[in-house]
Amino acid sequence: MKRNRSIATRALALVAISSLALTACGRDADDSGAEGQGEAVSEGEASGEIEVWAMGTEGEMLGDFSQSFMDENPDADVKVTAVPWDAAHDKIANAIASGETPDVTLVGSTWMGEFGQSGGIDPIPEGLVDGGDFFEGAWGSNDVGGTVYGVPWYVETRVLYYRKDLAEKAGWNEPPQSWDDFKQFTKDLMDKGGAEYGISLPPGGTGSWQTMMPFAWSNGASLTNEDGTEYTLDSPEMAEALEYYKSFFDEGITVAKTMDAGELESGFADGTYASFISGPWHAGLVEEAGLSKDEYGVALLPGPEGSPGTSFVGGGNLAVFADSDNKENAWKYVQWLSDPETQQGFYDEVGDLPAVQSAWDSGKLADDPQLQIFGEQLASTQAPPSVPTWEEVAGVVDSETEKVTRGDLSVEDAIASMQEQASAIGTGL
């Protein structure tokens, strides 16, 4: 996989939530978002200028890719501005505050709660797309308090990377299917396979929730109540999952170490770490570190009792600004980007995994066994709650998890602290 995706994903985790200064010069401070979906767009070709902000590799490639849309809609003119990920959150927030926005923007999936609740982006029109066509977790990241504010564009999820050669040496001919198997698998990769550590897991710190939280989701934990008005971190399911995560550190199967750039990939190649959990961009990185496709494999995350585990789903969503001057045609452009054939074409150009499930049924995506594992995992994924304060609470989870893995705090006290801080922050809904 080509990838700037690691940069995008780190940006989604690193950017802290900031309140929108919704002053009189822009959006009204009491505007807390629309209710229900917008009116359906009319049929027919799109027209007029459609200004678009996109980040990372997507922003660099989307302009040329959109020529096909303009060929189909000769009266439309798509103008794409590439925005760096590290500046994107504040740029969107400031544009909303001032009322000076383009028409369409790429929005990191973990930002949807904040921008949807702000009133700065519009609900999607009724009937624009069928939510059932998308991976459920990706679609859910756009649902803020029962209103859908964006359309999934591309997705990523996390699976288990493991050294197949070391697993075979340890007597494993297939990946683990349950938590008990997973623990034994990682132990055997050390004791019989010869690795120094059976797995590399982040001990905490920024973004580590994206690896730890899938264990909680797989165990049935929910981070908020059903309507998203209260955090529910202090559940038995969460505590059990964090205790399981902690056990890998306690038993020496992994090490409480923050990795330097490239250290994980080189350690995976030289046998220091026999496995890790990550996204599709890591395939290219481990191959650059010297491993062949025959030496490593990818597998679905296991669930507690042998059922498939639930992984994190991230990626990018497409939204239309409330202050857009060309809303209807902006939504027609979003609709075009959501077409399975368009999504498959964008994968061929950029390497982004399509959010529309049927785009995986043909072409390169259907022919690559490794990518098919990611497609299977995407069917069992969950996004963090689409609430305005999630990024802030995610930082709390990261911090308390680190105290647990380093032995400075018990699981019970960490969960209580997470809940106390999260309740004080509130969901913002």
UniProtKB/TrEMBL annotation:
Q: Where is the signal peptide?
A: 1-23
| Span list, region Disordered | 28-47
Its domain of life? Answer: Bacteria
**Which InterPro entries has this protein been placed in?**
SBP (IPR006059)
Chain intervals with Low complexity compositional bias: 37-47
Looking up SUPFAM superfamilies in the UniProt record yields: Periplasmic binding protein-like II (SSF53850)
**What is the recorded name of this protein?**
Extracellular solute-binding protein
The upper taxonomy is:
Bacteria, Bacillati, Actinomycetota, Actinomycetes, Propionibacteriales
